[in-house]
Specification:
mainly alpha; two-stranded antiparallel ribbon; Arp2/3 complex 21 kDa subunit ARPC3; single chain
Amino acid sequence: MHAPDGFINAPVSAAAGVVAAGAIAVSLRGARRELDERTAPLAGLVAAFIFAVQMLNFPVGAGTSGHLLGGALAAILVGPYTGVLCVSVVLLMQAVLFADGGLTALGVNITTMAITTTVVAYALFRGLVKLLPRGRRTLTAASFVAALLSVPASAVVFTLLYAVGGTTDVSLGKVATAMVGVHLLIGLGEAVITALTVGAVVAVRPDLVHGARGLRQKLKLRVNGELVDAPQATEPGPPDTPGAAPSPVAARSRRTLWITGLVTSLVLAGFVSFYASADPDGLEKVATDHGIDEKAEEHGLTGSPLADYGVEDVDDDRLSGGLAGVIGVGATVVAGSGVFWAVRRRRTGEEAEAADPSRTSV
């Protein structure tokens, strides 16, 4: 659903950019409350995983494919503010490194794919969790529904932006019907991926999942093939706060989860992506069928070494795409981890100042 340059006119694209910048600023501040020394590393991994899975277009019928948007997954795993940042990092990496999604349309893409999906999904998720019996199955079911509906919500927002700033004269009714219809189907794929991923992480480390906070079940960790009771997680605090240090067992478990997630992302992007559907995604299909793409502009970085998810001068398609995927995962995890480390460091400095006003924040 990456909109290229030229679909939306300059004034509306600029306005969307202002909205996106404002949302990112708010999210940077809100993420300080969501991230701690346990979850900050997970946030960088979530961004890399979303990048990898977005390379896996799946068929939805009639010559159309879809891919994960990731807002629901990110919001449930690491929180809505951090979720907006995760998807925004992915979109930035895709636009700058791979010429995927227009540069002037970056604000539009962040508004539709990061902000809308995260806000809608997390609001639905929290509402369902409050209404349904509290438990792991509820979290999985709520994740499914939230992810399912977040995708057509994104399509609706794109249609509204196009209604205001579209560059071609097309029937908005037909565009809206086509966009919502195809993205409902794509939403089913999003829902399955999100529910399976959330369920897998909750089964291993529910204490690391933002949406699972408050679960009454005692945490179990798998150590040397056996399930053992894990120490209760402590509230994060400044480095010199007694009890702030994680237990060795919990630290090893987090490290195992992080390594497993990174390896999975690398395999998905570097190998499995070769078998992804080559059909156009939902927006591309609707744009072609209804003439939205008549004034689409070539990406400003079309000639970049990694454009179109391939490595320049590597002739073997499988190797070229695999290397591009691995590079993308690496760049995203580094960029995301850097952002979340900085946010976490800022929070630590604020906590230290609050505890001892004589200390200088870093």
